[in-house]
Amino acid sequence: MNYEKDIIIDESALDLEWLNQPSLFMKYAKNAAKAQMELDHAKQSLDIAKAEADKEIRENPEKFDLVKATEVAIANTILIHPQYKEAYDAYLEAKYECEMARSAVTAFDQRKNALEYLVKLLGQNYFAGPALPRNISKLKEQRQQQTDAGIAQKMKRNK
Fold it and tell me: Is 158 contained in some domain?
């Protein structure tokens, strides 16, 4: 999937953009559902790793240098158990991917709103202007460059 490419709206082909919008939204909604499923599997694997580490520590506390196998000592030892750490890292990665996938779905909902407003502007002859029409893409790029330059300048001052 190429999120950066798919999210862009071609202002000169609003009809095609509207035709593509439902399939793009569905593509990213499916991706979000798959990411949620992977997060659920990662959580299940994390729970299993925790249970297995707990069992191993309780059965052989001296292997983990526990003088006394208290609940707090066991809980803390689980956190540093290699299998638990590996499962936790996988869970964090799945959680990140899931959040990114959800954000993409939200962005495509925003894309739909943008398409609606662009069509309204078109219906109000916003784009019909002087004999030489404005290049909206170029103006948008210039505005973004100005914004980026302003942000960079503020960041330099804050250092």
Answer: no
Within a domain: 149: no
CB 69 within 8 A of CB 32: no
Q: Kindly give the confidence (pLDDT) of every residue in the chain, 159 residues in length, as a single tens digit, with 9 standing for 90 and above.
A: 888 899 999 999 999 999 999 999 999 999 999 999 999 999 999 999 999 999 999 999 999 999 899 999 999 999 999 999 999 999 999 999 999 999 999 999 999 999 999 999 988 887 776 656 668 888 888 888 888 887 777 667 766
Q: What distance in Å separates the CA atoms of residue 45 and residue 85, rounded to the nearest whole number?
A: 11
34 occurs within a structural domain: yes
pTM summary value? 0.73
| Count of structural domains, the chain | 1
